[in-house]
Amino acid sequence: ELIYREFMRLLESEGVTRLETIGQPFTPSLHEAIAATPAKAESDTIIEEIEAGYKLGDELLRPARVVVAT
Question: How much is the pTM?
Answer without folding.
Answer: 0.84
